[in-house]
């Protein structure tokens, strides 16, 4: 079922979202000082391609630098990405068939707001990642 949902997601909005995140990642990597955000964009792009069956966790070794970087990201890009996910999620939830895809957009809001210090892991692998906050 996850594979079917991921394939439909890929066609409806996943491919376009991933391309947007990759473009943002390339721009961030070109501007050398923003490379950490560029790498986070690439991680989110992979998550945007195939979100069902995966979840986002906070890394236990994320420190103050991740927090400060997330504040900068939130001000310049995170809030706009979150608004986009909320808009698409609400639009998809209007139809019965789109509800799982709308929920996937809502699931991506926390990582789009604060991507540094986060990791994307398989959904059923909580025991394999001790120390991570779920």
UniProtKB/TrEMBL annotation:
The keyword Cytoplasm does not apply. It comes from the Bacteria. The keyword NAD does not apply. Residues 4-54, 69-118 form the Inner membrane component domain. The chain crosses the membrane at residues 62-83, 89-106. InterPro entries: Inner_membrane_protein, UCP028777, YccF. Keywords: Membrane, Transmembrane, Transmembrane helix. Coiled coil: none annotated. This is YccF domain-containing protein.
């Amino acid at each position: 079922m996850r594979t079917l949902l991921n394939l439909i997601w890929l066609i409806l909005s996943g491919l376009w979202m991933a391309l947007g995140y990759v473009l943002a990642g390339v721009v961030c990597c070109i501007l050398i000082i923003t490379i950490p955000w560029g790498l986070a964009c690439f991680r989110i792009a992979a998550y945007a391609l195939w979100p069902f069956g995966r979840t986002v966790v906070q890394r236990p070794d994320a420190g103050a630098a991740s927090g400060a970087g997330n504040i900068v990201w939130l001000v310049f890009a995170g809030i706009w990405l979150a608004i986009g996910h909320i808009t698409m999620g609400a639009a998809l939830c209007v139809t019965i068939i789109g509800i799982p895809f709308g929920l996937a957009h809502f699931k991506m809001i926390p990582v789009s707001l604060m991507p540094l210090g986060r990791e994307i892991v398989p959904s059923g692998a909580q025991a394999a990642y001790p120390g991570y906050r779920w």
